[in-house]
Design a protein that fits this description.
The chain is of the alpha+beta class. It is about 35% helix and about 25% strand. Helix 4 crosses helix 8. It is elongated and about 160 Å long. The two termini are about 85 Å apart. This is GspL periplasmic domain-containing protein. It comes from Janthinobacterium rivuli.
Length: about 525
Amino acid sequence: MFRKQLLYLTSDALCAYDWDHGVLGPGQTFAASAAGLDGFAAWLEDPQAHRLDVPAYLLTDLIEEDFQHQLVPHVRGKAGRALLERRRQQLHRDTPYRGSTVLGRESTGRHDDQVLFFALTNPSLLQPWTEALEHLRVPVAGIYSTSLLSIALVKKLSLAHEHLLLVTQQSGGLRQSYYEKGQLRFSRQTATIALDGVAVNIVLETEKTRQFLTSTRMLARGDLLNTVILAPAAQIAKLELLCDNGVEVAYHFIDLQRAGARVGLRQTPALADALLLTLLGKHPPASHYPPGALARYYHFQRARKTLYGASALIGASAALWCVINLLGGIADGAATQRLAQETASYQERYRSVMSTQPPAPARTQNMKVAVTLGQMIASQAPEPGRLLGLLSAALDQAPQIQLGQLHWNAGPPPARTSGSQQAPQTESARPLGSSLAGIPVAPPQALRLEADVAMPNNDYRTALAAITAFAQTLARQPGMQVRIEETPLDLRPSVALSGKSAAPAPDSQARFTLLLEWQP
């Protein structure tokens, strides 16, 4: 990426330069002939220089370069690009080396775009050299024009004239480029007529250019054309004698040594070629003319370097990740060892402290279990309070029922004996397991109640309905099961019914028994 090949092409020769780490090497000139092409190919294939893989930048300085300024409707996006491409093809059909740049917009009317179209009108001048580059598979980065590249030279020299004509002596001849407010509008090249090394036709060619700019309305009548001439210091005194300032033309001179220092050139150049080549080597812009298939090896090279760079980055990232993990593992191992030592130290201190303590009545784990069991018994141990509360709420809804006796126990209900008496061994006398103490869950509870129901006029039907409603009220409670064990009237088929229906019956009460089974 620090090496480049800068190729300066004129109508009759090609001068090749090596650019290495910001330094422009000596040029080697090859004539536009078969011998020159062979010499150029041999120069590229030099095994010691290794130039076949170095990117090449082709800078053209040709008289066959056309510039046209036109107005184009202001269209953006894909349609605008297609419009410019059609206009480029219409203006320059016979060459693939064509381009355009938008200078600005009109201030009146439709506000059309001001576009500068440019092209190399004689592509045959480039063809032998591009074929040699293509044959040797040299990566070509782009094709450039000295006229368009001189825009960067104007900025480097800080030339801020509104109407500027830059005159430079180059290998191809005398180049005159017109700038309006810093934008290139026109450029032309003419042959140099030199006398003692001084271009004596500068004044004549400047006047021709001014007349052309005036006739094409690029330069209004009465506008002052500031002409800046780049020349060696030894020629400036002679040029000042030839160039007289007029009403419409003003001449300014810049020493090539000072211009070279502004662009970063270490040596004083004899022509402006070195200035433009230095600008191209330091800050190459996008290709002025499309290189087409000639640039595919350059794209291959960039893609290859990108892949190499990505691979190197991935490899470096993987190595860094491994190093970080390795250092982290070492640090974790040291921390683990330190924690193990601290653990052993604390255990030794604990054993030392505990050895001086008197024997404890119970171990810590046993105390914890005892506390847990105590909490479970306190919250889940069976007690009749909640069940009696449910019974009391049901009795409030049944005023015709009067409670006689209650028999409560935890766990399954005990079997009844004859005569409605409990078994000889009471529930409290039986041994209680952990499940009856509420461990791990609350045990079921049973409540057998004996109650009397009022029977006005000895009406058994009303009494049975009241008992059934009372039992249903209790059965609605969650987890409650109710069973009627004994009713005032035995309705079994095996029992005979007796009584006198005609005799008047006084009000009385009848005894019944309910069994409540409740799971909290």
